[in-house]
Recover the amino acids of this structure.
């Protein structure tokens, strides 16, 4: 799935000369946390987010530095802080270094980008023009739209299920296959052995549940963070 499949196409925008107060009212009225700034040619020039509007002289929240800190802060930085806290137009407060994607960007890459940059939305560009925006809520809507077809049961023999499960576990770096045993009986997966944490145990259960043909998963494992010593040392070899 790509950006073009999930993005919001009718994007609310402002111009560089839009008054800051108007931008604030727009965010509140639309219930959004940020708005792209575009020029007369629809080219993206920045984004104004809630974070860009937190340091305002009207609120008394402008940045204040002690004497020594201010002394060692460059004049360019001090001037930039002043413009952000006193500026009257969108161009004064907007973030100019905007991360963007194209309509063909995979949503997995967008999720990685949002996480790495700690951002809530990513503009989508085509030929340098703003054509949409992907926000966290767009990704959630894509998730909510997924449907699992459980109407047709999958029939698989126990050996095939076990082999498929071991293959899946082999792809996961957290899996301790040498310390665990998987037994499959009549489509029921039995998990035996040791795990370090409850999260590791849950991950094993989820992998097993995702293998086609599995009817249920039964856990017989020891969680070392809860039970420091195995009940039967040496009895959990693969």
């Amino acid at each position: 799935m790509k950006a073009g499949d999930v993005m919001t196409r009718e994007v609310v925008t402002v111009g560089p000369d839009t008054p800051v107060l108007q931008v604030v009212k727009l965010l509140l009225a639309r219930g959004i946390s940020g708005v792209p700034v575009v020029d007369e040619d629809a080219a993206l020039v920045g984004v104004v987010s809630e974070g860009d509007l937190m340091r305002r002289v009207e609120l008394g929240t402008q940045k204040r530095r002690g004497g020594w800190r201010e002394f060692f802060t460059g004049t360019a930085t001090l001037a930039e802080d002043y413009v952000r806290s006193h500026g009257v137009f969108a161009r004064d407060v907007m973030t100019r270094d905007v991360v963007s994607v194209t309509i063909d960007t995979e949503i997995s890459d967008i999720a990685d980008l949002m996480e790495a940059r700690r951002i809530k939305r990513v503009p989508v560009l085509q030929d340098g023009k703003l054509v949409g925006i992907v926000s966290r809520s767009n990704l959630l809507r894509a998730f909510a739209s997924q449907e699992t077809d459980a109407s047709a049961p999958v029939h698989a023999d126990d050996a095939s299920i076990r082999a498929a499960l071991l293959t899946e576990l082999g792809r996961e770096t957290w899996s301790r296959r040498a310390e665990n045993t998987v037994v499959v009986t009549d489509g029921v997966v039995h998990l035996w052995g040791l795990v370090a944490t409850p999260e590791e145990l849950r991950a094993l259960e989820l992998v097993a549940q995702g293998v086609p043909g599995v009817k249920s998963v039964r856990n017989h494992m020891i969680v070392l963070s809860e039970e420091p010593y195995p009940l039967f040392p040496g009895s959990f070899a693969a």
Summary: The domain at 158-223 is CATH 3.30.1340.30 (Histidine-containing Protein; Chain: A;). Residues 158-170 form the longest helix (13 residues). The chain has two domains: 3-144, 158-223. Strands lie at 34-38, 44-49, 101-102, 121-126, 129-135, 180-185, 188-195, 216-219, 222-223.
